[in-house]
Amino acid sequence: MTTYTKLYDFFPADMFAKILDAAENGTPKTMEHPDLPLILDVDTFKNTDIHTHIDNFFKDLGYNTENSTCRLQGTKPGAEYKIHKDTPSKVVTLLIYVKGQEGTTFYEDVHGKAHITWNEGCPKADWGINPTVDTFTPNAGYWFDRNSQPWHSYENTQDTIRWVFMYNIQDIGKYESVQLNTTSK
Q1: Burial 14-27, CB ≥16 within 10 A → b, else e
Q2: What is the distance between the alpha carbons of residues 94 and 115, in angstroms, rounded to a whole number?
Q3: Cα angle, residue 164 at apex, residues 158 and 166 outer, rounded to 5°
Q4: Mean pLDDT for the stretch of residues 63-84
Q5: What average pLDDT does range 83-101 have in this prediction?
Q6: What are the residue ranges of helices labelled H in the chain?
Q7: Rounded CA separation 27/15 (Å)
């Protein structure tokens, strides 16, 4: 049962080159998240042709992109995102792999707990049912909406930062996605 849509060659080559360059060389706006093992740039691509490209993709699918956010996100070596579903504020989540090796693992369901929040995660003893790994391929990735959002997790077992490009459409009135707002994960 697939609850996400796989994407290939999502960005035109010139756009992906800009994103890859930012991941490899950093930007003046790159900063570490104070509570999570993340390196974020929430501003460099905001309201750019890259942001517009993604907005247009989702507008064509019928989504209102008025409250969309995008960011370059790096996960430090050794970090583990336990099994979780995204916050209810995320109407749509898009992830495009940029640089690394570790893909995202999706699960049909989870053992043991009826509800596991992003903050709590899921202990390894309660790993999910029927795991499927989405292969890390640069400029490929996936998207899902909150009506079909899957359980998912990943670990960065490599010695370097895992870089992805994230995009969310936010629900008005709900808390924001992971950025530097430490009250929302």
Answers
A1: ebbeebbebbeeee
A2: 23
A3: 150
A4: 94
A5: 93
A6: 13-25, 49-60
A7: 15
User: Nearest 5°: CA angle at 152, between 94 and 146?
Assistant: 50
pTM of the model: 0.86
Token pair in block for residue 128: 């999910």
- DSSP H helical ranges for 26-166: 49-60
Alpha helices in 26-130 (DSSP H): 49-60
- Which DSSP string corresponds to 37-67? SEEEESSTTTTSHHHHHHHHHHHHTT---TT
* Residues of the chain above pLDDT 70, percent: 84
C-alpha 57/C-alpha 7 separation (Å) is 12
- Contact, 163 vs 72, CB < 8 A? yes
The 10s digit of each residue's pLDDT in 111-124 is 765 444 444 555 55
Whole-number Cα distances in Å, 26 to 44, 72, 76, 141: 10, 10, 14, 22
Examine the pLDDT at 182 and tell me if it is beyond 70.
no
Sheet holding 104-107, edge to edge: 80-84, 151-155, 104-107, 132-134
Name the more confident of 170 and 172.
Answer: 170
Average pLDDT over residues 82-103: 93
The whole-number average pLDDT for the span 53-59 is 98
